Amino acid sequence: MILIAVAHTAVFARLAPWSSWLAGDLRNRAADSDSVATFWALPGGFVVVLVLLGLLVARAGRQGQRVPGYVGWVILAWAALAVSLIGPSGFLLAVIPAGLLIAANITAGRHPRGPS
């Protein structure tokens, strides 16, 4: 998830009109539709949340904790909805962390941890 967010930022950060954003174009509605779309693709979108979620999942894994199964299913549903709305895109990559989280949950259910 962290890799997806970083890659997404790397692709769109070059397109961002940072100076006009900092000058207030988003606040005063002077920004054009491309500028607004780029804003929602970067700091206004899922990038920050996806990094935080990736960090939380990595931390849970390092501590031997399980992430609830619904996390993977919700990520999968979110990506499927996005792909159905906009077609094939980077949202297809969400299948990877979603599938890993779902598989980890199913595997953990088959092999429950006993008391340590």
From TrEMBL:
It comes from Streptosporangium brasiliense. The chain crosses the membrane at residues 38-58, 70-86. It comes from the Bacteria. This is Tryptophan-rich sensory protein. Pfam families: DUF6463 (PF20064). Keywords: Membrane, Transmembrane, Transmembrane helix.
